[in-house]
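so im writing up the methods section and need the YdhG-like domain-containing protein record in one place, dumping it here so i stop losing it
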Amino acid sequence: MESAATFIDEKIKELGDWRGKTLAHLRKLIHDADPNIQEEWKWRGTPVWSHDGIVCTGESYKQVVKFTFARGASIEDPKKLFNSSLEGNTRRAIDIREGEKINEAAFKQLIRAAVAENYAVRAERAARKK
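--- predicted struct ---
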């Protein structure tokens, strides 16, 4: 059985254009921000990064590469990276178009904040069970 990392590697190669490069670059930033993050392959072809729950997904479309943060509405975004799915109560996303650059430090901070939020939610649930 192939690992999620292998599927993500194949997805990056399959895209073969700016979208693959963008996905690969942000994947590296995710791992730089949290070396303990886990890669998963869900929903028939979506890269997912998790730590105490889903942190974000990385989807590729014709015009954008979208990183959707599962608890994005609950985390601070001081550099205003979230630019999509802003109307919901839970998720927030970052759409990256061809040629756009991302604030790498701010992106890493969002990853760390999402992990911290997942941990807080898990700790709160555990405390309620006691």
